[in-house]
Amino acid sequence: MTTTVLPRVTYINVKHGVASWLLTKDHKRIGIMYMIVVSFAFLLGGLFAAGVRIELTTPQGDFVSSDTYNRLFTMHGIFMVFFVLVPVVPAILGNFVMPLMIGAKDVAFPKLNLMSWYVFVIGFCFTLYALVSGGVDTGWTFYTPYSSNASNTNVLPVGIGIFITGFSSILTGLNFMVTIHRMRAPGLTWFRLPLFVWAIYATSLVMILATPVIAITVGMMALERALGFGIFDPRLGGDPVLFQHLFWFYSHPAVYIMILPPMGIISEVIACFSRKNVFGYSFVAFSSLAIAIFGFLVWAHHLFVAGISPYSAMVFSFLSFAVAIPSAVKVFNWTATLYQGAIWWKAPMMWVFGFMGLFLIGGLTGIFLASLGLDIHLHDTYFVVAHFHYIMVGGAIMGFFAGLHFWWPKMTGRMFSDSMATLAALLVFVGFNLTFFPQFILGYLGMPRRYHAYSEEFQVLNVLSSAGASILGVGYALIASYLLYSLFRGAPAGANPWLATGLEWTTQSPPLPENFAVQPVVNEGAYEYSKREIKVA
Amino acid sequence: MLEGIPLFPEQASNLAPEVDNLYFGITAITAFFAILVVVLIIVFAIKYRDKTGQKVGAPITGSIPLEVGWSIIPFIISMGIFVWATIVFFHLVRAPEQTLEIYSTGKRWMWRFQHLDGASEINTLHVPLGRPVKVIFTSEDVLHSLFIPAFRVKADAIPGRYSSIWFTATKTGEYHLFCTEYCGTKHSGMIGTVTVMEPGDYQSWLSGGGGMSMASRGEQLFQQLGCVGCHLDNGSGRGPALAGKYGMQETLANGTTVTVDDTYIRESILTPQMKLVAGYGPVMPTFQGLVNEEGVMSLIEYIKTLPPAGQAAAPAQAQVTP
Description:
heterodimer; A: Cytochrome C Oxidase, Chain A; 15 helices; 67% helix; 0% strand; globular; B: alpha+beta; Immunoglobulin-like; 2 domains; five-stranded mixed β-sheet; 6 helices; disordered C terminus
């Protein structure tokens, strides 16, 4: 490679000072600001998880009290779900790269974009306040009537925090949809769009349609708790199961908010490092939309033991099997993309391999839970905990890291150590499996989730799980260290270090404040690697 | 160390083998697909590796037959699993006609079990071997869930309604009983033991329990609470006659019909104005606070024992079959 230097004017150095960041309308800077807040939330959530895992190394509840333990897993869930998993890919990478990928100068509504960040931070602060002033112990699911009248912890501030944060999702989704409709570069037709943009589009649809429901649900729960409205509490004439229907009507589609964007990342990275078109482009694109739509129709599979009619359980089981098909189609297409590729083993691709392995297990164990006769036994056991961590951490977080490593040179203009990043991917993969695979067995053995103390025969598997969690922690710490090092000492990356297709790679790294010096024009599909004579940069 | 790790809970009910077979079946099918995909990924990643990063891949964009194939084949297989799992599910939720009924209430943080003949116990449940048992339960406060892993059965306890699980124990011994719906501070302490006994031992255990049978206690409450004043046997009272009504259809004032089951009787005692029987006025007061969940269960048990009008009422105790 020829020696490259950092470009003179970039979005980072064009203006200086804290105010220039806090008042920025640049989607790239806003993406970075999300990354700072989300990383902080991830650190907090991780520390809570560490507390949980330490407690569970022994059967007795001896590390913390029951009430503390209940707060730990609740706050772990709340921070990880609402402040990490939901925003991690759309708000950080979506904000940063989506406008670049479509050849736009910014999102459609830059001021609204900044406002979304502020709304997010305000919601986050409410939740932090609730944490500092004593925490909350309802579980991240807030099931009534426990949350609405039994718990004497800070349910209301957290509820308000989540209510506010929801608006950030809605506004971001709206912004992205309009951007993708209206601001594509000349010649960038829908079927030339990178699949990450399709995934962001499908996700935005779910954000706009589903998020209001959680706001309404949390609002009703708050009304019951604060003013005694009888909505969910049977003593006041309400129905506790109604809460579960409403809650999952958001929270199941929210799983797709978390997993669709990482799926988009996987398509980008696999195409780049296989030097090929994504196999079955339109099937991969439409499977995102199919998942977004079907995702709205499966919520009651969380209620199979909550007293719903067996016939309605049957319908929801059927639909849950149906929603698995588009995900399977994606996995098959990614695998087929590798066939006859020219596979370049660089760190982002290693994260993709990790994603594939973990998402496969996560997806396939979903089949177990969609199966009515088996879910009765598995519901609310550690099997469920293992399953959704495989999807959310194994899928969404591994996918995020694939994307972060892929676009890091674009975002910062600097390279990181490829061998360190590969080692980190391996550590996270091994640590993750050691943490969560034993939990499938624990679940089938019957260990219920959210247990502070447990029966002695479950100890060995729990110790394995805690050991895995510490490896996982080391893996994450390693990522933080080499990325921070790269920020200051990394070699300049040049515009296109991976020799990737895509408009974001045609501009300098880090990009200009206005993204492109000249308006790009598109005249081919997203992944025309095989037509290209790839030149040494 | 690994030898000490159990992989499956004990099979101690008629339902457990069915659930386990389903589990093994799905494990085999999903493991096949997982291994297939992982092997393909590893083979492709090694075979097509390019260390330079300079080559390009083959110009393949897709294949409609493959897409159709790998959509339809998994769909057909998943429908097979769906049908199998649904059949098992209906065995799990549909109890046989003749069961030994045991009532239970969950409250933070204990399970109380009430046997029909009067014996009651807390956080332990004694059941006979080889006889279908149905546990009917509710919650006095927040959500709970009754889970017996060795039997592979579970259902949420929901305040305001009745849930049930059923099983036929197939192996004597002691098994875990867990609360699996998070319920606050001592959620992980809301646990107990199910003891499966030989039928003879169960009988002698029951007779040691003493106390009044649930139906007689219900009859007593029926007198004490004054129900008897309005619910006259010949239907001429201010409330409908109750004899012989259990399990029947009743027409309501709004024209709809309702099956007289445990949940309807419970509602009628606690929120009597909600579903009035046609022809009767809204005169019954609520008994919320005057009778606890176990009292309501006893009243239901008493109403079940009432013979259809015109027949002589048999003594309630006679209905309790061992």
